[in-house]
Write the structure tokens for this entry.
Amino acid sequence: MSWYPEVLNGSVRRVVATAQNGLEVIRLGGLETEARPSQFRVVEREPMFRLRRYFADEATDGSRPPIVLVPPMMMSADVYDVAQDQGAVGVLHAMGLDPWVVDFGSPDSEDGGWNRTLADHVVAISDIIDRVHEHTGRDVHLAGYSQGGMFCYQAAAYRRCKNLASVITFGAPVDTLAALPLGIPEGVATRAADFLADHVFTRLSIAGWMARTGFQLLDPVKTAKSRLDFLRQLHDREALLPREQQRRFLATEGWVAWSGPAVAELLKQFIVHNRMMSGGFVIQERLVTLAELSCPILAFVGEVDDIGQPVAVRGIRKAAPRAEVFESTLRAGHFGLVVGSAAATQTWPTAGEWVRWREGLGPRPETVDEMTYEDQPATETGVSVSDRILHTGASIAEVGVGITRGVLDITSHTMRGTRELSAEAIRVLPRLARLGQIQPHTTISLGKLLAEAGAKSPKGECFLFDDRVYTNEAVNTRIDNVVRGLISTGVRPAERIGVLMETRPSALIAIAALSRIGAVVVMLPPTADLSASVRLGGVQTIITDPDNLRSATSLGVDVLVLGGGESRVLDTEPNSATIDLEKIDPSKVKLPAWYRPNPGRAQELAFVLLSRSGGHLEAKHITNHRWALSAFGTATAANLGRGDTVYSIAPLYHSSVLLATLGGAIAGGSRIALTRGLDPAQFAAEVHRYGVTVVAYTWTMMRELVNCEDLPIGPGHPIRLFIGSGMPRGLWLRTMERFEPAQVLEFYASTEGAVVLANVSGAKPGSKGRPLPGSTPVRIAAYDPIRGEYLVDEQGLVRECGVGEVGLLLGHATHNEAISGAMRGVFGAGDAWVPTEHLFTMDADGDFWMMDEKDAVVRAKRGPVFGQPIVDALGGIERVDNAVAYGVAVGDEELAVAALTLLPDSSLSAVDLADALANLDPAQRPDLIHVVPEIAISNSYRPRRSALKAAGLPKPGVRSWYYDPEKDGYRRLTRAVIAELKEQGSRALTG
């Protein structure tokens, strides 16, 4: 038994060593390693940061490429210097680089630290890049870990890569909703983040210990295993010392506090709205997008990283299509990417080799590859099952945990679909409920919804223009100031005020201010019909901008001028009665006793819209209820939410913009992006910079974009939906092909009555869809467009059309319309219906298809010929750009004529026409077809046929055809055929 004393002595020594080391850990927080940090000098010092330059004495000659390392908000800057021989700064310096480290300090020990915002950090990094560039005279390599990497992307985009040689990130998520930690469903994460941002972090900041505990809870298995390993080896000091610095850093010393505003902004912009991917995040009122990154990018990806998951990190490939993007993968978790043996032997040497390669000092690192991006299913995170098992299997076996987490993962995936449906219902149901609660005396208006948005989220972003962001608070303050100015000039409720302005923020403010007073907004299109528009709209006062001032002053009414920018100069006569609203001091205007903000009731008139129909100028009267119906209906159909940015390239005076685009965005809580006009290059830039998810169009507007061959928008664009009205079927298909995977949501909103149809599914391009929930019931009445009469049954009631039958669309009268003169006794005794101006048919599935305007139907001898099916059929030819159908009078009848334009370098044959029109009944095919150089369009991009109609019969030639019923096809139109048509009319075609 001679070995017994040795065993006993060994056990005693182990116990003693454990006690000694344990006492040292308790007293000092860890074992004394005698390791010293690398030498650095604080080169720049500001309230937001201290800029460290490591080994400054050895970098004075400027030969070393500078690399700036940015820590996350919640970690100390020492994360890059945990141990000199294994830390980032030591390794990079040894490779010939000039390392700089940003030290933000801890908010709890910095003056004003608790008030820091995320934008403060980004702007500080941009400032640091300028200072390092000034010190070194060289472009900077910007590198960041985790959230520090996100800062790097944001700062690089903010300065559009000026003075940057490359960006390097380590476990930095970009597509934050693609792979959330612990498999949390997207809907749950966004709602929780939204709540925390609005109600928690506006009042609370995160202390360092809270940050440490939170991150440890993200991987409880690894945390428990690390602590057990440490306790088991506490007797063996030599075994613990190599990793002691790392353990102490992650366990206690490496964590700093987060300021509440910065966390709230992070959650709002990059979790709730995911604007690292979509673009349109805001840095000091400037709109920024990663799509503008143009410098080379290297992203380090941890194969088993459950925080910066591979799918989320690789989102940079899609978010930055203009940049060269590379990746380097290693089997490591989130912390292992930058701290520990793997980082010392793989991460930092590869980062150093990358910098040397980009500087032309060495070859491309073997572990660096071009990054590819593929859309992943919602349940995929990029961390494979085998990788998880290999990485955590031993840990689970040792610690005996993990079952709970597995159960949670299974449950979260099972419930994901249900939660997403619930999230959609949460958005939709309150809107429908509010619509159902609107009664004639309910107060509802545009001004009221904007006020509600301001009260709910003052700092929320309301609209965007010229790369600037206007918050709800700023917008409502501006509206209230303009209200005071308008009241001081004599504007009162129910008074009709014309608005003659270009699409700009001041136009939106003017409309909202009039709504807030309770006045009626008469939208005046800047056309040659201004005098007639003013008379028809009953306008005695006009609000205009400097661009339209001369036109407004020529109309003989009172003129008020608003907006125009800081350098505005008004073109007025010296004794002019024109009033400049910008010169009125709102603080000196005393509000009268009658003023109550947003008094508009549902039954009251809100807008007068002017448009041409059948060659005549008509005024369409829109009540507050009608506007709210379109607003909430659009928000519901398009599923608009606070994460959407709705981009309007159509003018504000167009009915679909005022009713659907503007109204839907306000009702949905979405951002509204305004632009000065339709320019393809500007559109592409603003779509990415604003993070546009929904684009509003009118009629054939999308032609300008679809036909632009060099439009700089790739497959990674953020657009998910195009919404509008009047898009022809052929252009609809071309739009979806060009902007895949975006869909088209086509509306039909009558200005008469409260009819709102929407093709929500998009399954039938060209169809107007079905009535929106909450809108008025609709029916198609049997109607003879030739005689302009309804067709009645044997009881004298109007007959309702069957499936496939063409008739006039009617909307059930609302309470106010029933009183003011709707048609009564239509389908039954005592009912009330409001006729629209359009002929429709309904298919067997219940979808509505518009056939024509009732006054534009071709009155052919064989019966009515409807234009829209002809336009849709011809538009389906790939080479056709635009088409219109119209009637040309020949004797006592009309011939159906179709005019079309072709795409550049395209041709058309009679066979193409016959094939395209084969599905139309022969009686509904055009008699004549001709190719024209161009088709005139209106300011709202509606094709105009009046000039073509006035020109008469098409000219004969190789690009003109007539329909031959005997051949059931089209033949070349000759002079002889034209002569016969003039003499015999349609008999010349039928023999």
Remarks:
- Confidence is low (pLDDT under 50) at residues 24-31, 384-426.
- The chain has 31 helices and 40 strands.
- The two ends are 127 Å apart (CA to CA).
- The longest strand covers residues 832-842.
